[in-house]
Amino acid sequence: MAASPLPPPDPRFVLRGTQSAVHALHFFGGAKGQGQPLLLSGSLSGLVHIWSLQTRRAVATLDGHRGQCVTWLHSLPQGHQLLSQGRDLKLCLWDLAEGRNAVVDSMRLESMGFCRSTVLARGQRHWMLAMPGRGSDEVQILEMPSKTSVCTLKPEADAKPGMPMCLELWQAESSPRPLLLAGYEDGSVALWDVSERKVCSRVACHTEPVMGFDFDSQKARGVSGSAEKALAVWSLDEQQALQVCKTHELTNPGIADVKIRPDRKILATAGWDHRVRVFHWRTMKPLAVLSFHSATVHCVAFAANGLLAAGSGDQRISIWSLYPISSDSSTPLSGHVEDTEDGQELLMHRAEARTSRKK
Amino acid sequence: MDPARSAVRLTVREAIHTLSSCEDGGRVLSTLGSLRRYLSGAENPALPGEQEEFARVHFSALLRCLVGRLSPGWLGLLPDGQVEELWASFFLEGPADQAFLVLMESIEGAAGPSFRLMKMAQLLARFLSAGRMAAVMEGQCRQVTEPASPLLQETLLAKVVGLPDCLGNRLQRENLDAFLPQNYFPLLGEEMMRALHAVVDSLRGGWDCSVSFLSQVLGKACVRGRQKEMLGVLVPRLTALTQGSCLWQRVCWRLVERVPDRAVEALLTGLVEVAAGPEVLSRLLGNLVMKNKKAQFVMTRKLLFLQYQYSTPMLQSLLGYLATDSQRRPLLVQALKGLLETWGSCSAIRHAPLAQQRYVSKAVLICLALLGEAELQDSRDELLTSLMAGVKSRLDSSLPVVRRLGMIVAEVASARLHPEGPPLKFQYEEDELSREMLALAAPRPAADSPLEASPAVTPEAAETPGSGSVDGGVPQALLEGSGSDLDSDDELVPYDMSGDQELKKSKAPTYVRDCVEALTSSEDWERWEAALRALEALVIRNPAAAREVSVELAKVLLHLEEKTSVEGFEGLRQRALVAVVVTDPAPVAEYLTSQFYALNFSLRQRMDILDVLTLAAQELSRPGRAPKAPQCDPRGPAPPPGSAVAPAWRAVVEERIRNKTRRFSQGSARQGRDARANQFSSVAGYFFFPLIQHFDRPLVTFDLLGEDQLVLGRLAHTLGALMYLAVNTTVAVTMGKALLEFVWTLRFHSDAYVRRGLLSAVSSVLLSVPAERLLADLPDELLETRSWLADVADRDADEDCRMLAVKALLLLEKLRDRLLPLASP
Fold this sequence. Notes:
heterodimer; A: mainly beta; four-stranded antiparallel sheet; Telomere_length_regulation_dom (chain B); TEL2_C_sf (chain B)
């Protein structure tokens, strides 16, 4: 190791112009080898901005949540479809193909909470959606796009975990049964077997509500952040029992979001202390503290090529490039970008659409 | 009987006549040989009656004659030292006490170093090494039926114990090793053991014996301060011998009992020191304390209350001895009562040295651990009364150690005396003393032999942390090892994370006025805290703005209360106040000093005022004081390496400039330190005089000369510090005069802390006021002070006070030395 540590890194660039706090971030397209993705950001004022990482400008703005905060953005694997969840209790499905920006479908949420929904793709056209349900401690599972309510996951009467705070649907490679991880208000994380509608295991990770977690299904290990001053790393054994492996003490309390990079090397946390912290995923060794923002960081997102985006209450989105993904031979962060990618295509259409509109 | 007597007398008289006059070697030899018949153990001995008669009447005379004949020529009458050998055999084989007395007598009688003296000394050394001293003592023990005259015994005793002194005086530089006290007394101990063995043997054989001579020897040796040498030999042996034998125990008890009263104390202190634990002590002493008033006094009063230099184990074995027997336990209760009373007595707290207070506290704790529930309950009221009084006056004390002792003892004692009540718990930091004290309070496990118990306890205690850390250390090292192992293949080098500090949410105010407003009216506690944290830097950065509101700011800060738990609140407030005083010294100091004597302040606030004034004065008087950067929080982390990076580039830039610049002057480019006026000089009066003026006017809430002596002590220290900082100023002389008067009025204050303050104030007067002015303007005060200092250095109960007084006296001496060369030419 070098005698003196590397000086703290600076953001690669900063996206300004959302004009309100950024609450959701999502990289769109740009899967491996496909060049620059687009970045979607959801803001407190209810707008979704689509950013080009090449020009570093917003190329489009989607307004579908009637001025209420956008809390979650997710793109569906097929087509150019985007899901956005807003505090207006609506879940919108957008069609972004060929320069369109129309809401093709929307759904009413039953819960006033801050819990973000989650999606699991099942086959080409079908996907499963988990969102907070009507009862304050319920999670509702829907089959999409038919919007059929499959089931409602309600904890046992004596468990009293409080509201679900964050959800993640996933599926083990070995079995086709969908599983749901849910972080609850009482600081516990529970694993649901969706088809059996029962809790496989539940473990108390924090003393404060779980604000965000991410799960590495390959290593069967997850990390969660809460309002308290520590990160918890937990794992899932063969019997599908959760157990806390260790906790990592932080300098300041409050983690709004946790994301593991797709290559499972590092993870990033969005801190209430305005800082993004980067850890080595396997050892949980702290690697960097990114202090750029001047307000709470609400969300972090990793692109497939390793870019890290952080959205904050100071209305800025910072883009960082740390520890480049080594297996990738081309350097995706500064390299030349081909024109034929998903995101790029979308971008072109947008540009065309704009020019045509101007005409 | 008669004819035998006269026959012996005749033979002896003839022999003495022959010996004293005859120069013929053969005759001398044959005469001596014939006399040898009378010694016990010679071949073809005389009748027992004759032997006895010879030993009783004629032996000493013969020996004296032999001593008188001693000369080189006489010894040389026959070759090979035959005469000398025969001559010596009379001393070594004859009745030991007479031989010893004659030897000592002749040695004492010798005029100066001479052949005879040396011969006698060598003979005495042989006498000692042949173990004849045991025979001397044994002889005294056996004479039960017809004891030697007390006078003779007295003489013998004096000679036995005084042997090293006597020989040392006589032989001066030619003294033999065997007579040095450090060699002689252990030998005497050994001999005494042999005598005791003989006594025990003859007791077993049914003969009467008395150990009183041995007791006297032991006592006398102890009185002469030779307990260590004697008891170091005796106690381990006796400990072993008394273990299984009642006879030995009784002999031992008798031995101790018969020690004369005036030697009891010396013997007992020695015994308690050497004996390994209460059980041994109990075996050696028996119930001595119940039989002997003097012993009781020594054990229960003197060793506990009057002396305090002894070690804790000794205290434990002493009190343990009192506790081991049911007859002695009332004494222990009595001792505890006395101890607690002393512990709680107001005047003892004030006048006893700290070491003694510690000693008494330890004794109290040991007593409490030794006594049982029932015994404590019986005298609970009495104990509680003195405990409560003691706790109160101890907590009142201005010395932290005294308070600490009060807390520890109060906690332990209340837990023992009042087990049913809620436990008393004070907040004090754990340190060596408190740990030691608390360990004493824990009841000792009932060990069979303290010999084994005490060493077993100590290493265990010492090892526990070590083994614990080993246990904890191994897995940790393993964990770290495995962690770094995994990391090595990853090459994810961490970035510098030192900037990762606790986040303060609200923005710090940028103007002094904002701070004042935030501190006075804000209900937003984060803003309040931020204002407090920012204040010092703001005041230093904008002195002009700070001056506009200085007094108001001081007022706000002085009255500031810690409403939320802010880390380092006291330090922040203090530093801010100091910054305000430094920025605008005169008005703020005036305000603070006036508030010091105002109504309605807590002692804490008053002491804060003193501290702030001292610190500000220090800051003002710092030479070359530049507008300094705000101090960073001393408790906080080290300055971030970001600041360490800056000098690096600066160095690079400077290096570059140096390389490109040509200088035409030689020598170093360094600038001398710029001389600046002592800023404290002009305002020292504002700090000093208002403080010193009103100390003797009690308020309703504040009485410096009464019970608020802690503040008085602090005031004295502060005045001393201000005086010291006012060195080289014009007001120093006036200040010194006022301060000496202040010291004079308070010089007999009963609180040690106050006295320390006064002494340091005197020292600072001596340091700060120019010597000439001191002598010209304050000669009387100086003389008075000097005599007071000498008195304190001599007699004060507090060690620090004595030391400070000596230091001040040294300063005075130095002052005189400096002036004398000026005056003399």
